[in-house]
Write a structure and sequence with these properties.
- The protein is about 20% helix and about 20% strand.
- The protein is of the alpha+beta class.
- The strands form 2 sheets. An 11-stranded mixed beta sheet has the order 1-4-5-6-8-7-12-13-11-10-9. A 3-stranded mixed beta sheet has the order 2-3-14.
- A hairpin with a 7-residue loop joins β9 and β10 (about 270).
- The longest helix has 19 residues, at about 290-305.
- The protein starts with about 50 loop residues before the first strand and ends with a helix.
Length: about 400
């Protein structure tokens, strides 16, 4: 079928819940370079026309040559943008101007905590106050509940576009329909959610299709600060409807180049032992069989954790290959870091920050000005380590994941 130009009309941003997205998630397939990802100026219903699709192929996945400038800038606009970055950021900025978010995100106060780790702390009072209350979660394996808030109930204008990979060869796997949706309580600039086929009502358990979309979104961006992550139930996921987070942070993070040691002789699983928290490291050099193998390994690992009621968080970032590294190591591929942790259901109001995917990676969104100004590296490390599994249970998990990797065909 021939590509068509995407068109559509928005709802009024101030309106209450507009027609459900369930059953209306068909993307308008089009040439992404010829498509506008902005809502038109009038306010007729956007949902009837459907959201545009960002269509990409393997040639748009950028592997090498992505590095931080010698002096990392503090503003997103100072870093290069790919077509994906431009589409996401322009549409996200427009939704902010139209009032789709719970608060207007300005430039966040940011400081790197003194010490060896390199924590990036940011003051985000509005998110702490105005974010949606987490759902009542009691199990890592809790079933999807259509009566609770879910992504079939969002306003159509919150959808930026569908992320759709075209099939380059007959051997390519079919691409799921992934909605790229604003997070209405953003952590940082460009904070979006990747939601696979919302009408299916998938619970918050990681699946290969959405992980593939997350990895490829990182490869679509020219910005080394675009990261993707996943919180399991019990790992501070606040909505039990399958989704990943993606956002920009114009700062290096410790996990990008942290040294690691192999846990299996063929180098499929590594252990990050450095602060802020030990984690399991998977690494891919780029698209193709290597990326597909990493997706399979990660999902087998998270399946094990979910089946054993072990909460977990996952973080995807451009990074250095496993092994001995240095702060100046090249970001040659993509790192996927997986942390098994104690289950935590609900928000701990008295803490300076909550422990989820970004905190374990070294990015600390702090809730109050007092905590932001007084937070130390030692206090941050103590909060994070308090959420980790006890050593005996961590050893059992490590042994189980090593056994899973050993079962893989050579």
């Amino acid at each position: 079928m021939d590509p068509v130009q995407a068109t559509g009309r928005p709802e009024s941003p101030g309106a209450s819940a507009l027609p459900s997205l369930q059953g209306s998630s068909m993307a308008i397939l089009c040439d992404s370079h010829a498509t506008s990802f902005l809502l038109p100026s009038d306010s007729e219903d956007w949902a009837e026309q459907g959201a545009p699709a960002f269509v990409y192929g393997q040639k748009e996945l950028i592997v090498g040559g992505i590095q931080w400038p010698s002096r990392a800038p503090n503003a997103l606009d100072s870093l290069p943008l790919s077509h994906f970055d431009t589409a996401l950021c322009s549409a996200w900025r427009q939704r902010m101007e139209l009032g789709f978010f719970r608060y207007r995100l300005g430039e966040l106060q940011t400081r790197v905590l003194p010490g060896a780790v390199g924590f990036v702390a940011q003051l985000n009072v509005e998110r702490g106050v105005q974010r949606r209350r987490p759902q009542n979660i009691e199990s890592v394996r809790q079933a999807f509940d259509p009566e609770q808030f879910n992504f079939n109930k969002i306003r159509p204008g919150e959808v930026l576009f569908h992320l759709y990979r075209k099939l380059d060869t007959h051997n390519d796997l079919p691409q799921e329909d992934i909605l790229v949706v604003i997070n209405v309580s953003p952590l940082e600039w460009g904070h979006v959610l990747l939601v696979p086929e919302p009408a299916r009502g998938l619970p918050q358990r990681l699946l290969p299709g959405v992980l593939r979309a997350g990895l490829e979104a990182v490869l679509l961006s020219l910005n080394p600060g675009f990261r993707v992550g996943f919180n399991s139930l019990g790992g501070l996921a606040s909505v039990n409807h399958l989704h990943l987070h993606g956002y920009y942070l114009a700062h290096r993070l410790p996990v990008e180049v942290a040294p690691s040691q192999p846990l299996d002789p063929r180098g499929r699983l590594h252990l990050l032992q450095t602060l802020p928290a030990p984690g399991f490291l998977f690494y891919t050099s780029g698209p193709g069989p290597d990326l597909e193998a990493v997706i399979s390994r990660v999902c087998r690992a998270t399946d094990y954790l979910g089946d054993h009621e072990i909460a977990h968080n996952l973080f995807v970032t451009r990074g250095a290959p496993p092994g001995k590294t240095s702060p100046g190591s090249a970001l040659e591929g993509v790192r996927v870091i997986l942390w098994a942790r104690k289950s935590s259901f609900g928000i701990k109001e008295g803490e300076a920050f909550n422990i989820a995917l970004c905190e374990l990676a070294g990015h600390l969104p702090v809730k109050t000005a007092q905590d932001f100004s007084s937070l130390t590296e030692a206090a941050a490390v103590a909060l994070i380590q308090d959420c980790l599994l006890p050593p005996s249970q961590a050893a059992v998990v490590q042994g189980a994941l090593m056994a899973l990797m050993a079962q893989e065909e050579p």
